[in-house]
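INFO  loader      accepted 1 record
INFO  loader      residues=100
INFO  predictor   begin
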Amino acid sequence: MDDPVGGQPVCHGNSAGYGTADGRTVIRIAMHQITRAEVTEKLWELDKAGCYVEIVYRKLDNSGTAIADQLAKPTKFGGITRHKLDDDAQGRTATHSSTC
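INFO  predictor   done
INFO  writer      dumping tokens
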């Protein structure tokens, strides 16, 4: 990975008030369904590099556990923070939906 901010490790070096309190880059994603292992691998690599990665999703790939396993892999920064929406049970709209 590249070093985006001179002299700082990857995913670090944000100015005060940006990113996390310790200057880490924050990546937040909201997806209805996560189906591509390449995407989850890259997100895990970013978390491993020091970014704070947080995902809100409704479904994971139905073909097996590869995506769920990748998202759950720990890193020295704690791993990806995951939030599963249970819209059907609560009668609300799904991610990327509108009630207007």
